[in-house]
Amino acid sequence: MKLEWKLLGLAAALAVPLAAAAAPVLVARGTVSTPNAAEAAFAARTAERVSRWLTAAAVPHVVVDDGALSARLAGRAGVAILPYNPDPPAAVISALTAFTARGGRVIVCYSSSPALADLLDVELGHYKAFRAGGRWSAFRFSADTTLHVPRLLRQDSRNIRVALPLAERSRVIAEWLDPDLRPTGDPAWLQGRRGLWMTHVLLDDADEAAKARMLLGMIASYDASVWPPAARHILEQSSELRPGQGFAASLAELDALAATARDPGAVRRGAAAARELRERLQAWLAAGEYGRVVETAGLLSSELTRAFALAQPAPRPGERRAVWDHHAVGLYPGDWNRTARELARAGITDVFLDVLWPGFAHFEAPGAATSDAFREFGDQLDAAARAGKAHGIDVHAWKICWRLDRAGEERIGALGREGRLIESVDGATKPWMCPTDPRNRREELEAVVHAATRPGVAGVHLDYIRFPDPRACYCDGCRKRFGAQTGQPTAPWPAVVRAAPGQDAFRRWRAESIDGFVRDCRSAMRKRAPGVQLSAAVYGKYPSCVQGVGQDWARWVRE
After folding, report:
1. CB 65 within 8 Å of CB 26
2. Is the CA virtual torsion 264, 267, 270, 274 positive or negative?
3. What pLDDT, on the 0 to 100 scale, is given for residue 386?
4. 69 in Cβ contact with 15 (< 8 Å)
5. pTM
6. So what's the pLDDT on residue 371?
7. What does the buried/exposed string (b/e) look like for 300-317 if buried means 16 or more CB atoms within 10 Å of the residue's CB?
């Protein structure tokens, strides 16, 4: 289940100054090393994720295409990160070899290149897949590692590419663990003479703040110049409950909350422990013990978070406390009863289960391919609903709308040929069903109703119930429907709706089309599944989201 960490809150604000600074770190975006457009898109997202974490840790860096890596590595030494670069060409391998000869170091994740493996002193093994989440659920670094990294990090990986150490040239420094934190026997990280190797990519499904600190510790072991600003930055971020609040204001908030807490003494003891730990961290910072600061700062954040949790009052009658489950298999795959029991014990009242995408489901749904989790553990919506009923937890079918990430290339191609995909202003299509197309609306509405009528389902939760961005959709179908439904001019298209007054009318029409779909869902559910709740995950920035992505959620609440 995904955890959001406040450490990442200032990433966007920090991105510009960090990019402008001298950058000792290069992040290589997979381009020439990827075999197709889908892999290149995945590589780009992975590089962006690593960049976001480096920004959060105040590590100066630049992101470059790996096709341009040779030129960027010339004449410099530092650290190069290859977050997902499956098969770099010979020119890139040659540039990396020369880079390491000058003292540069490389951090590689999940490559299938024997030449790159040889450079990093590891031997590539075979690809291993697990059919549903759960086998590789965390990794733990060995106690004797010299890297200043968190000892244990959570991550649910469904597959790895085994890599083995070479005698006297490299060693395993972290091992994969199963959901019960037992060793699987599979290496997670290896360290050689020229850098580090991970047997999967870094995912953003959990422990994001810890991963930012991990990358910092790895880089700093090769380039100590990143330590001082990063340690100061992480200490300050770990010293506050909310971004920018500061330590004094955080303690004041805890003190005020303690008055209504079930155990005021526990809250105040937690605040006192946080104050004592922060004083210790400040002393280490003054002494230049930056690694100790970074390693321990997470404990300060945990102390504050724990005190804040203890300060919360008991649930009021009718209050909802909910979690999202992105993997849809619970905390213990195959054992929803255990998951529901633990959630109920923690005061959770609702679970939003990510079970249904266009053309893909964790249960049997018309027109949808069933998932690996379904084949491994059975109908996840049914299992969760039955366990939820037994433990007093409401289960909501989380419905991803329009997005085709899990639909498969064959289905995406068919929808493209039928003219049912989003089209951006430059004419490029996206793997996203056009929300104004009646065929798509009918298909998505049927999926919503099917989920709502499943036994024991308490609600349907709409996600991505919007357009992807302001540049969509400008397909020919949208042109015809906009003109027919509004009487507005449609030529020249799309220029006529890219500037006032046509732009204002087009944005209103986009938002009203999404409004209409939500209204249709509510109406159909009242008829077919009375009592089943309808909710949505929405943009927080209102009303800009109405113009930007056509999402007028305030109107949905009013209606």
Report:
1. no
2. negative
3. 98
4. no
5. 0.68
6. 87
7. bbebbeebbebbeeeeee
